Amino acid sequence: MSLWDRLRQGLSRTRERLGAPLAKVLGRGVEPDPETIDSLEEALLATDVGPETTARLIAGARRRLRASEGLDLRQALEREAAELLAAHRAAFEPAGQKPWVALVTGVNGVGKTTLAGKLAAAFARQGRGTILVAADTFRAAATEQLEVWASRAGVAFLKARDGADPAAVVHDGVTAARARGLEVVLVDTAGRLHTKQNLMTELEKVARVAGRVIEGAPHHTLLVLDATVGQNGIAQAREFQRAVPVTSLAINKLDGTARGGAVLAIADQLGLPISLVGVGEGIDDWAPFDPGAFARGLFE
What's the rounded Cα separation, in Å, for the pair 210 and 229? Predict the structure, then answer.
């Protein structure tokens, strides 16, 4: 089973919540009546799409139905969703800088460390010299976990003693990467609640220090969100954006949530590109985000 087949399977709970109440109307190719619109709104809200994005999605689907003969409501919704998701693009990959420095950020428990390890393995397979920097100096298990991933991926690893200044660790990691001629620096930052100002200030410092070592660093700040928390991810992202410029989003744990519609709301409300999705714990259980495939997984 391909990863996107697994994603489709994982989105089955969202699709069932969305499609079951609408099975009789999604295949119609006529302008939906008020009763159908009410049912559609209710179903979309139940999957955490959110009121503003729900209204935008339905309005766009209705325009498509009026403009295209032979299109049914399901297809119109799918195309509108795909276009909404594709409005902003940012690939998570080096763009000419050497070393290319990326921060992996997010609240506690979203799977940052595991994702950083998976990405390091992928870069290593591409022949790109990579270092994992353990800037989560407060959770001892995070450093140990990242070291296991570094060994598994066959990449360099840098850590500091527990309780060390995360910015100093990043300074040493970026400096080491430049000295060794490595191409990719992946910095695993500590999980931090977006409501804790002191921790967000610390993240700002990490970014500043990286920029002192390599001009323009961090070149990519990846914010990892947990799909199972639904629209709470929007509030998280807004707070992180205040601390550091977020380049793109990674949506983790998409393989078993009934709130997958929140991805539409996140993309629509934040105007941030989604670059990656995670659908499991395995080393290859992630993929670059595909708006069309995701929309099909929701509505087909």
Answer: 31
- Best CA proximity match to 251, nearest among 222, 292, 271: 222
At residue 168, what are phi and psi to the nearest 5 degrees? -65, -35
- Look at the block and give the residue holding tokens 């089955």: 12
Two structure tokens written together for 130 = 């990579």
Q: Are strands 100-105 and 220-226 parallel, antiparallel or unpaired?
A: parallel
Q: What sign does the dihedral 148-208-178-128 (CA atoms) show? A: positive
Q: Could you tell me where the beta strands, DSSP code E, fall in the chain?
A: 100-105, 130-135, 156-158, 184-189, 220-226, 248-252, 274-278, 286-288
pLDDT more than 90, % of the chain = 55
Q: Tokens 């990719």 label which residue?
A: 184
Is the peptide bond prior to 94 cis by the omega test (within 30 degrees of 0)?
no
Please give the Cα distance from 230 to 218 (Å, whole number): 28
Identify any residues that bridge with 29 across adjacent strands, giving them in sequence order: none
**pTM attached to this predicted model:** 0.92
Do the Cβ atoms of 135 and 206 come closer than 8 Å?
A: yes
DSSP string, 135-160: E--S-HHHHHHHHHHHHHHT-EEE--
Residue spans of the domains in the chain: they are 100-246
Average pLDDT over residues 262-268: 91
Question: Residue 101 and residue 131: Cα distance in Å, rounded?
Answer: 10
Indicate whether 9 pLDDT > 90: no
Contact 252, 227 (CB under 8 A): yes
- Please answer whether residues 138 and 223 qualify as being in contact, where contact means their C-beta atoms are separated by less than 8 angstroms: no
Please give the CATH superfamily to which domain 100-246 belongs: P-loop containing nucleotide triphosphate hydrolases (3.40.50.300)
